[in-house]
Design brief:
Layout lengths: L11 H4 L6 E3 L3 E9 L2 H12 L9 H10 L10 E9 H7 L6 E4 L20 E3 L7 E4 L2 H27 L4 H4 L8 E9 H11 L6 H18 L1 H12 L6 H8 L9 H10 L5 H15 L2
Antiparallel strand pairs: 1-2, 2-3, 3-7, 4-7, 5-6
């Protein structure tokens, strides 16, 4: 018997921007080099894995939303994407903490470092947050920031001058680079499956993430993932990015605020439909959550 001919899963919307450079910050960029799979690949993998258990969910969108909602993450591993990124070293340090990707970074032991640094505009110097030790809140007055920007440029130029002097004297690149600032741009190929990319976006698109890496993450999500796997992107926004988790104590507090007389099944169904819970499965799970909160 002749084997079934397979066709490569593709996303036409992503194909349109394949290789296109999206600029980030002042000198950074992201571009898609290659990818594998699409929303259908996730559905295909889930139906093989879960078998009859998925047949109650009639359409691909409903199944993907179910997987996202219940953290059934392995089907998302069937999709993979490779990006070429150019990013400042301070943001790259945070980026590379996500150890679930394959990375090939430009070597400053082999190649000379380009004279490219991220620079800060006078009105873009952020203040240290008083209630978040690793975050920022608000901005320094522009009149004060102007002097900081001038000093930054002088520092960067001096560091580059020292580096170039060492190179010209024949100092090894691996040693000549050691005093370059963290604002120096690096480039890398970054390949990651969709499951782990979702985790990256969950953390790095969050409002408390550092602005620089959040800029990259937001572009990856809004310009790339949204084109690549649109059903997954919408489910991600609904169940990860814009959702919250509640502790047992918080559930107990909320239960005291809800009027039990207003939580009839008919009322909850109507409310759920108004808010976009279009499938019976989603509405049933929503009602179950409410019942748990109200103690019924």
């Amino acid at each position: 018997m002749e084997a079934e001919r397979l066709q490569r899963a593709s996303s036409p919307a992503l194909d349109e921007i394949l290789g296109q450079q999206f600029n980030v910050l002042d000198r950074g960029f992201i571009r898609v080099v290659d990818y594998m799979g699409n929303d259908s690949s996730i559905v295909q993998a889930a139906r093989v894995s879960y078998g009859k258990g998925t047949k109650t969910i009639s359409d691909d969108e409903g199944l993907i939303r179910y997987l996202m909602r219940h953290d059934h993450t392995s089907p998302f591993e069937m999709c993979d994407i490779k990006l070429h990124v150019k990013v400042p070293m301070d943001a790259w340090r945070q980026w590379i903490r996500h150890r679930t990707a394959s990375v090939n970074e430009i070597s400053s032991r082999y190649s000379e470092v380009k004279d490219e640094r991220q620079q800060t505009l006078p009105d873009a110097w952020r203040l240290q947050s008083k209630d978040n030790k690793q975050g920022s809140k608000g901005y320094l007055e522009q009149s004060l920031g102007e002097n900081l920007t001038i000093n930054e440029l002088e520092l960067q130029q001096h560091a580059q001058q020292v580096y170039q002097e060492r190179i010209d004297l024949g100092v090894a690149k691996e040693q000549a680079r050691k005093d370059l600032p963290l604002s120096t741009y690096t480039e890398a190929y970054w390949e990651i499956d969709l499951k782990n990319l979702i985790h990256f976006l969950t953390l790095r698109m969050e409002s408390h993430a550092q602005l620089e890496i959040r800029s990259y993450a937001s572009l990856i999500g809004e310009e790339i993932v949204s084109r690549w796997v649109p059903l997954t992107w919408q489910a991600f926004k609904d169940y990860r990015l814009n959702a919250i988790k509640l502790s047992a104590q918080e559930i107990e507090i909320i239960s005291k605020l809800i009027d039990p007389n207003r939580v009839s099944e008919e009322y909850l169904n109507s409310l759920a439909q108004q808010q976009g819970l279009t499938t019976k499965v989603e509405r049933a799970e929503f009602i179950k959550k409410v019942r748990r909160i109200t103690g019924e």
